């Protein structure tokens, strides 16, 4: 056990046991990765919300659906998730109607079912993209404190083992070792707390977007049904 009176943060880390240092390094790597995903997800969710609002404004403005479909098809990467869902449904609806030779032979139910299935498939793809890395944030929030606790337990064990070579056990002798060990728990909490907060926030925002997407699928299906009559 390295006994030192320097209780600065850097000194405690450098004088910690090798195992504790490895655990701290792992937690630091997890924290950096978590923050990377947090910022990427924050920008992605913000962009998805903005694109959804813009598309809803254009859609409910009463414009031509075919023109809106062509615009969404030509700008799939920039149009947003809701526009891609609309594009999938409208495209399948147009293909379904074209597959029948005449209006008399048109099976409206089959065409609408095809369009609805296409929108549902597009909806699932968009949700998979939006929900990516959320599981990692949840894992960081739940596991990081335990990883830090493991480092703390190991450090405290090492500190008490070092007392066996000391004739008189005093607080000054054991304090540095315990302080070194507790830093691992602090770093674990530093990694976990932002991940939990971000996970809860992003889950709430994505759920709200999912509700808007599902509502649009149902409303657009009703519009297609009216146009098929």
From TrEMBL:
Membrane topology: Multi-pass membrane protein
Residue ranges of the TM segments: 18-39, 134-157, 177-199
Any one GO cellular component localisation term in the record: plasma membrane
Primary location class: membrane
GO BP terms in the entry: bacteriocin transport; cell division; protein import
Pfam families, per the entry: MotA_ExbB (PF01618)
Family annotation (InterPro entries): ExbB/TolQ_transport, MotA_ExbB_proton_chnl, Tol-Pal_TolQ
Claim: Cell membrane is one of the keywords in the record: yes
Keywords of the record: Cell cycle, Cell division, Cell inner membrane, Cell membrane, Membrane, Transmembrane, Transmembrane helix
Residues of the MotA/TolQ/ExbB proton channel domain: 102-214
Subcellular location: Cell inner membrane; Cell membrane
Annotated HAMAP family: TolQ
Subunit structure: The Tol-Pal system is composed of five core proteins: the inner membrane proteins TolA, TolQ and TolR, the periplasmic protein TolB and the outer membrane protein Pal. They form a network linking the inner and outer membranes and the peptidoglycan layer.
Membership in a protein family: Belongs to the ExbB/TolQ family.
Primary role: Part of the Tol-Pal system, which plays a role in outer membrane invagination during cell division and is important for maintaining outer membrane integrity.
PANTHER family in alphabetical order: PROTEIN TOLQ (PTHR30625), TOL-PAL SYSTEM PROTEIN TOLQ (PTHR30625:SF3)
Name used for this protein in its record: Tol-Pal system protein TolQ
Organism: Janthinobacterium psychrotolerans
